[in-house]
Structure formats: structure tokens, C-alpha cells
């Protein structure tokens, strides 16, 4: 059905790599609410964050400036794999027999195989410039841990990664990848922290979660004045760095004489979703462009579609400030789905505000449908997507099928946030029919949210 | 040391994808010798090959034409990942402090993650056009098996892959990749063929080899008139298809105002080496260009550096015609190195003739040096190379270091034939110091070659 009027792959020349990131806060009608101190319920200031982050990142966390310069050394490293290609999904369009034009931005070309190095390199750079010698972090499926391993070794920074245990066991190659780039990695919960030891004492088989791993990484960082902490998603400065994706995509769509009616990204903490969508949302917010922007989560971790917009901890133990977020409650333990990077109980402040204001929408996808979409994508477009990214593929297929049924020639853009080469064990289980869908009951969610009521965390 | 005067990545526009492959036979001073029938020692004709290959591929096997058209449907599929990028290794140059300019062509961007789909798609196309419904093949590290799985499913052809057992166990994800693309795969030696059953009866723990796997695949193909066989290297038509790599690279080097003094490819059966080098060799053969062209093999399977140029079987059991090749003897069982794609006892007829005529040279690399090179490459250029490709990286590093010592500003081009995402188990063992070098004694080689004397296989 599709007509090949343009090249399949659209490359932006290297010299057109963006010189600034885009800060959507400047254009939001309702600004994101500030994080609160859990005891006083007062906004936390830059000083409260100083034990965790270098000054420059704290400034970026709160800046209202529309554009933030990308430091030249970071741009030089970006050029190792950026600008990433924008690809027209001619083969997928044909298989779906859809009148929709489908484009995807492919972030799997990076060293770690996902969008994560975009912020990892920036964070490592700012830490190094302020003399930091060691960083701690958490990782779900391992995308973030390997990205930060790659980035920290470039700046001679030591790294300790806490990897969610269920993913550590599912994806042993991720550990190797981190080791190749000099990262140290342990399964979380671990014996390296009080948090980990306490959880293991109560439940030696605890499969871990991003929330627990964050707690461990923060604990280790705050106990050592020479160690900082790094987060791969959720926070404003992380989302800021990822906007390089959408900024490139806008130029590339222009090269293809196209503009998206729908922009789609999978959703864990929000970083790849923000990366692809915020630069397009600028057109919606400032120029009234009509456009749907969809965040896609697994239906087994449905904070956007079934959670509550209120203050909650970013981690499980309660070491972070209270963040205004769509949340399932920080005690929510997501089922052991293979999209490890989407197993997080909350969403960042900016995305939550945008969702609450009706500027973006959300969708939830069952695990089996996501793998089915991943296989179709591999057989048509030739790229095996990461289990996280298959969620964006799934929503894209849904929209393209709807377009066929309605006879609408819409244009869809989605972010293929990473390849699935390290996740083939998950595909093996899918092909062997060894994995299934999970359901989360309303009672489960209500129970976890009630804890927040009991703790007096404000609703918004 | 390096100065960034050009972009790091050089993309050839899609419309400049070559329209023909280059056939080096047309320009060789001494043409490759014909394959012989093992009993009569007379040249085999096209009819002898008809049970194995479609007519068009048999014609390509013997053609003397300088250029062969790439069918338009094949070009359209190529565009899913081609033209592949040419990359300037600025970061590696800096780490080596070398005055050498290093470029690499990166074939890891293909669906299967290596150069193999270049010929897999072409072979599947010609088979489909001649009505073939099923294909058999062998695979070493799994690169070829997954490439052919990807290609055959595009043309609705069923595929049976025999995967060398040692690699099957080392790289379980390769099986999954083949399954995603509908390929059936068994470890070889297998119980599916008489050849396999016989070997297993004598030695149930036989680790397999490419030679054995080829025997199994051919046996299954010749027993069924509706089944053909497909080979991922060695043969002339396979090398022909791979020249798309070097043809693109020539245009990209021109875009970078550069021309290589040294061209390097790793060497198993010769396909990626031929792919990168033959189009440049054309300049050496027809225009007297001064250039070194180096085939790099593992020192544990040293057919080019320590084998003999003579007729031998292409497989272990003796189902193929006799091929004029540098060989270690078809009974040579290569040690279980991780570069599974390089564990082959012989070399193709064209490459062997070029080596014998002094037009190209060969080099051998120990396993540990190759992994060390792979790690340095991953830490600098950000790409984790396939264990096979690390052999090309190793030789490149040797040449770049020599250039530094001699103060020469040479230009090196090598083919990074694939990424190592599916081979991370090998890197894990290297990092854990669990792998080592292997030595092959002169006696071992002499013993295997004596078998050829006893069988009356001609020396050249």
C-alpha cells in the first residue's frame, strides 16, 4: 500500500546535531510542582540535592530556560552514534496494509543499544567536571547500567550498578556489557547496603524492583562524600538530555516533508517518551499544532492509566524527596515482565503534569501483545526491538490498524528506544509459550495507595 | 593526535546503493582453477551443481563478466540497512596515539548483525524465483544461519540450519534469533542425517565443525529434489554478492577524500574479506594502485599462513567437489575458539589464487590478542565487535602501532563485519580469564595434509 517516495533511512548530517537541549518547562501552561521534603512537606531546595548530584545537574533540574546548551565535549561523544537515523517503516506499513505513514527514530545504534547514553554521557561529563570520582546507580533491564558504564569509563569515573535481580538473572549478557565498560554490577537487593540486607533478611527470594535498586544506590552515595548518584529517568534533567532525540527527529521529519499526527513512546520513568515527544509538544503548546502524544506502559504496571496523581517517594524505601507523580504507590511490586525498564511504580513530575492537563494521553499494553508486535517488527523491518520498545511498536500497530479501518492517511512517529539483542532470552520464552499476561487488581492498587494516605502524602 | 577534519560517520545516499556486484575474476591475471570431481578429477560442470543450487547462482559461480546486476527486489531489501556506514575511528586513533587514519565499514547494522544478509537475501531471491520451497545450510557462530533465516522468511522459503555444536552451546541467543525469523536449527552433528548419526556414534561429544555441518546440510538437500542448499562463504557467487560492501566503501572513501594504503578483513571462508577488498583490488590489478590487502585468520586455524595450496573437499565428509584452496586438510578439527565463523579448514578458490599470486597477504592472530583488541575497540569506538571481527581490529591495531613507530601517516580501512551482542558469553569468559590461546603443531597439520596425499588430491 505504501509508496516509496522517499529514502527509507533519513540521516541528519553530523554538523546538524543539536547544539541545545529543549526544556519543555518553559512552555508548560502549568509548571511541574516542586518536590517536597517528606517530613516537613516543604519544597526541597538545591542544597537538599547536593549530596546526590553535581551542581550543574541540580541547576538543570530546576531551570526555567527554554534551551540549555549541550557542552561541546558531550556533542563530540554524541557524534560516535548520533544523529541517529529516522526510518520510514515501509515494510511494516505493507504488512499492516495501512494508509498510515509510519516513521521511527532508532536509538538502538548507540553503544549500549538504547537511548540511555544520551543522558549518561551528559551526566558523566558534569560529574567529572566537578571532580566526582565514583557514581552509584540502579538499572532495570540493564540498558541504563550499561549506558552509564560506557559513559563513566570515558571520564575515568568508577561506577557501582545495582541491577534489579529478576533482570540480572534474565539478562546475563548485560552484566558482561557493563564489565566490558568497567562498570561494577550486583543484583539488587544486595548485601552491599543496609536497605538490601534488610529486604533479603525478610525475603531472600525478593525479585527486586527499580524502587529498591534506587534505594540501594542512593544509600551508598549519601554515605560517601566523594560518591554521587545518577538516575537514568524520571528527573527533569534526564528528560532534558533526551530531547536531543526529538530535536533531531523534527529536522529529519522536515527532510522527509512529513509531520506526525501521532507521537508514541514507551513509558517506564519517562525519559525516552520525553525525548521523542517534548520537541513536538512545543509545537502543540506554543503554536497550537493538533497532535496526539501517547505514552505506552505495560498493563501490569499501569501508573499512568490506573494510578493516582499525588506526591510519592521515587524509591521503595523512602530515601528520595516526595515527587508529584502518577503513582501506584512506592510499595507496588510490578510483576516480573520482561520489559524490565518499564517496571517502575511512578512517573516524573513533568510528564505527570502534562498527563493531568490532558496535553498527552496514556495507553496500556499486555505483555503477549507486545511480543507479538516485536516479532512482526523483526520480520518486516529487520530490527528485533527491546521488550520495552515493543510497547511503542504495539501502540503504533494499533493506531495504524485503526487508520486502515477509518481510511485515514495519518502520519505516526514512534521512538524505537533500543534493540533486543540482549533480551533474546525473553523472546525465546515467548516463542516457547512460557510467558503470559499479568493482571493487576483494583484492590492491589488501592491497597498500595492507601499507604500513602496513611503517611499523609498530599494528593494533587 | 587525530584531527577531526571530516564527519565521523560517512553515509552514502540510498540512491547511490550499487546497481551491480563486482566480479574480480574478470581482472585476475591467473583465473581461479575449476573445481574437480573427486573420483574423475575432471572439472565439474554446471549440471553437477544443479542438485544443490538454483541455475542463476551456478551461472554466477562461473561467470567471467566484470559486473553482475543486482536484481531490483534485492536492492530494495538491501535498503532496509544499506548503504552501511563508513566510520572514521577517531577515538581508536587517539587511544593508539597513531598518525594512521583508520576507517571502518560497519556491517553490524544489518538485521542479523553482520555482512551475511548481503548474500543471504540474494540467494533467497534466486531460489524463490526458481520455485525452491526449502533450503538447508550450516552455520558456525550463527551469523550465517540467522542471516539466511531473515532472508528466507522474506520469500516464504522453509529453512533447516545445522549449527556447529560448540557454537550452539556458546551462543544460545543465535537459536532464538533464527526462530524469530522462522528458521529451524539443530546442533551439528545431529541425528537428522546419516553423516551426523555416524559421527555421533563414534564420538557423542564431538563439538562439531563447519566441515561437518556442511556435510549434513548437503546430505539433506541432495536427498530431496525440492530442497536446495545454501552456503554462506567460500564460493565465488557468495564473494560476488559481498562486494557491495567494498563498492560502497570506495564511494564513501572518496567522500572522505581518502584512499586506503592497507585494506583488512578477518578470514573464515573469505566472504567479508572479499566483500571489503575486491573492489579496491580492482584498482591494484587494473590501475597498478600500490596497496596492501591483508586477510586475518585465527592462529589456531591457520590455513592461509600455514596450509597448503591444493585441491580438497569443502566439507569434512567429502560431499562437495574438490576445490582449489589453501587448506589444513578437510579432517582438520579447529580448536573451540569463540570466533566460530573462522573455524573452517579451507579458503575459497579466488582468494587462494590471489594469495598464491602474491596479490594479497595473510596474517594470523592469537585468541587473547583478538579479545584484547575487541575490548579496546568497545571502550573507544563504542561498538562491541563480533569475535570474528576482532581479528580485523587486531591487525588494524598492529598496523597503526607500526605506523606510529615508523612515523608514517598511512590510511587503513578494515571491515567491522559484525557486532558481538550475541557473543557476550565469550567476552564474559575472556574477562574472567577463562579462555586461552591454542597452538597447532606442524605435525598436526602435516598429518591432515597427508590424508590428501593418500587420496591423490592434486597439489597446485
What's this, in brief?
Chain A has 460 residues and is of the alpha/beta class. Chain A has 18 helices and 15 strands. In chain A, helix 5 packs parallel to helix 6 (143-154), helix 11 (236-255) packs across helix 12 and helix 15 packs across helix 16.
What strand order characterises the main sheet of chain A? 1-4-5-15-10-11-14
CATH architecture of the largest domain in chain A: 3-Layer(aba) Sandwich
What is the global morphology of chain A?
A: globular
Strand content of chain A: 15-25%
Biggest beta sheet summary of chain A: 7 strands, mixed
CATH class of the largest domain in chain A: Alpha Beta
Greatest interface and its residue counts?
A-B, 43 and 43 residues
The helix count of chain A comes to 18
Oligomer: homodimer
CATH topology of the largest domain in chain A: Rossmann fold
The total beta strand count of chain A reads: 15
Helix content of chain A: 40-55%
Radius of gyration of chain A: 20 Å
Number of domains of chain A: 2
**Coarse structural class of chain A:** alpha/beta
Mean pLDDT of chain A: 95
Poorly predicted residue ranges of chain A: none
First and last CA, distance of chain A:
47 Å
List the helices and strands and how they pair.
The structure is a homodimer of 460-residue chains.
Chain A: E1 9-10, E2 20-22, H1 46-49, H2 55-62, E3 67-69, H3 72-78, E4 86-88, H4 90-96, E5 101-106, H5 117-129, E6 134-139, H6 143-154, E7 158-164, H7 165-170, H8 172-180, E8 184-188, H9 194-202, H10 210-222, E9 227-229, H11 236-255, E10 262-266, H12 271-287, E11 292-298, H13 303-306, E12 308-313, E13 322-327, H14 349-356, E14 361-365, H15 367-381, H16 389-406, E15 411-416, H17 424-431, H18 442-454
Parallel strand pairs in A: 5-15, 6-7, 6-9, 7-8, 10-11, 10-15, 11-14
Antiparallel strand pairs in A: 1-4, 2-3, 4-5, 12-13
